[in-house]
Amino acid sequence: IMNVHVKDICGLTPDIDEAIIKIIALIRQYDCEKYCYFMTGNVPMLKRMRELAPEIARCAGAETMGEDLVDKGLETDSCKIQLFQPHFGDDPDGYVRAACEKAHANNIAVNVFWADDPALAKKYLDLGCDVILTNDYQRVSLILK
């Protein structure tokens, strides 16, 4: 599954709309609609992606500390949220656990970006995260065996 992280530092502009359309065309050209999802913290962009390609899943990410990602996910019909380590506040374990519980109660999966250390990845899985994004898949995958 490909996490297609689309960033727009200037807000929703004609250029970003054109870029989203090109990305959608490539996804469709290679018949990857079921094998990828869009990830962004930009609510207008998530909504635009939903309009242009409702068949491609969306993942709501954080733009600011303390943002309620589940509410953002529900607002944009996203099937995933993506937590961003180290922006978990003063109680990281409590934040992750609460976000996972609320997301799962709303049928939303939870990614965590990132964990390259197997022990940290295991901790996130134990707290309820569904997906670990990592730069070291080989090491991290060993915890699942």
Order of helices and strands: EHEHEHEHEHEH
- Estimate the mean pLDDT confidence: 91
Unreliably modeled segments = none
Helix content: 40-55%
Structural class: alpha/beta
How much of the polypeptide forms β-strand, as a percent range? Answer: 15-25%
Shape: globular
Radius of gyration: 15 Å
Q: What does the main sheet amount to?
A: 6 strands, parallel
Task: Characterise this structure.
- The protein has 145 residues and is of the alpha/beta class.
- The chain contains six helices and six strands, in the order βαβαβαβαβαβα.
- A six-stranded parallel β-sheet has the order 1-2-3-4-5-6.
- Strand 3, helix 3 and strand 4 form a beta-alpha-beta unit.
- Helix 1 packs across helix 2 (43-52).
- It is globular.
- The mean pLDDT is 91.
Feature tags:
145 residues, alpha/beta, six-stranded parallel sheet, 6 helices
Summarize the structure.
The protein has 145 residues and is α/β, with parallel strands linked by helices. The protein contains six helices and six strands; from the N terminus they run βαβαβαβαβαβα. It has helices at 14-29, 43-52, 69-75, 92-105, 118-127, 137-141, and strands at residues 2-5, 36-40, 57-61, 80-84, 109-113, 131-133.
Helices and strands, with pairings:
Layout: E1 2-5, H1 14-29, E2 36-40, H2 43-52, E3 57-61, H3 69-75, E4 80-84, H4 92-105, E5 109-113, H5 118-127, E6 131-133, H6 137-141
Parallel strand pairs: 1-2, 2-3, 3-4, 4-5, 5-6
Helix pairs in contact: 1-2
